[in-house]
Amino acid sequence: MGIRFFADMHSHPQGRAFNYFRNNPERITQVESGIPKEWSPWVLPPRDGAPKNWNRQLEGKRPGCFSQSDFNRLAASNVRLVFASLYPLEGGFVRGKDPKGFGKIINTILKPISLIAENNDLRALAQSLQMRYSVDRIRFFQGRTKEVFDYWEETKLEYYFLAARDGIKQTHTFNYYAQECLSTMLDENGFPQEQLDEYQFKLDHQYEIIQSKTHLAALLEAPITKTIAVVLTIEGGHVFSMNGENVMLDWDMIKSRLLELKNWGKKQSDRVASSADLKDVTALKKWIDQATGQKTAHPIFIINLSHHFNNYLAAHARSLPDKLRLIMDQSPGMINGPAVTDIGRKVIELCLGIKRVVVDNKITFEKTNFGKRILIDVKHLNPRARAVYYDEYIIPYNKLFPEDRIPVIATHVGVVGSTYLTLADLKKQEIVSLAEDLVKRNTSRDGFTLWGINMCLEDIKVICQSRGIIALSIDQRILGNPSGKSSAADFVRNLVYIIEESQKNKFATEKTNDSIWDCISVASDFDGFIDPIDSCPSVMHYGDLLADVKNLLCSYPEEFFEPYTLDQCIEKLFGLNAYNFVKTHFPE
What we know:
The protein is α/β, with parallel strands linked by helices. It is 34% helix and 16% strand. A hairpin with a 5-residue loop joins strand 3 and strand 4. Helix 20 crosses helix 21. The radius of gyration is 23 Å and the shape is globular. The protein starts with 5 loop residues before the first strand and ends with a helix. About 2% of the residues have low confidence.
């Protein structure tokens, strides 16, 4: 069985092109012949086309020298709905740390290594080699260039970068490699020999940033479409809560930015941005500022309130693995302090268009009208913060206003399995001790990653009862396989836990349109520097992943898929549920 299209509820398709050329536009001259030499989401760094880098991708390696989810790959793999997340890199990744306690002892012992943890050129070089951003790009994030780095301005520029090519057809040829097994040839060990074969995909495609439910339906319900529907999201409240120096802004500034996001629109110009505009940041900003005409709505649909580091809004979950914590410190705001700050509560209420009021110890709500609703993705909120969000906002609001139900969204996630069933239990697992981390105590069990960033049974219950959606990641660490060979079995293990526990606990009625099978999807987090499962190293392998997942589920009884069939469940998982979710909840 085939499906009409694939959907991905969280990725960064513009990220590699934007970040590679952003502080080094002269690199565009190095783009291979036959490709437009312009700064565009369709134009990839020259290294991306090298066979050795395709080899690394096909082996499922962490990205850096190649893209996982750019628009060329989306077009070639029939991904027709993508949630494009805007994300300016947080300073905590590149600006070093101030070690304390046991971490200070470790840094003293490992002084040559700990130099990399400081905000200097050595750190910039190390970060550049790891991420394959230019040193100038890293130094910009470090706040060490003439151009001032600011989260808000960088987010707007990334948006303009996307908007400038909105609806413009692309017609170049995309060259790619695939591994073909030659059964007639054996290597020196007697195994079938693999080689890279080169292919070409003729692009006649465009992407369009979704403006409304009607716009989305027109794109995806057409019999044949070569248009990729793009839904805008933002990963991390630091975008609007802090300046480039990680200093918290006042509420008036945060509020004005949120109102802009709720009503964001592209100004349509009399002319299309030229290649020169796109190569020159100043020219691009000027082009946007001078554009006239009717605004076209491009509202932000979803925001991750927290991300990897403290943004003074809500406590974030532990997300940095193992020895990376020698050079990065995400503990501030993670365990100590309020689960959700006073300003964080204001952000939640403004995004959702509600005002929480406590009268006689009872929670009630007033609806507000400050632009389009922005939904909140609970990924990266730690268990304490998720408990506040559920217990003080989602559950009581949905009980009072079932006709205006607010869905809970959890994208690019995995589950913790049966080890921790409640958020109260799961919050105890958040590891802050570097000593514990280095010896890998208690980080996985029964094939599940036990970090608080993953969903427990209580999360699944709230998401189902809110008619929300759980979109599983393709990151092998999140799925419970941090090292060694990984496969679709890791994905299916998380999926089956969600389905079986929901059915057993009757989180949904399991009738048509009210089943756990209506509440699941895929959110790869591709080009978020994830290490994907080996059998799905990029969006171009979604077809392989679908086939593997279906094969692994074939042995399950019919009751497991009710009220649907296996084929219907597969189509829902890989495309239809994401589409229906946007069609239901996207603001008009």
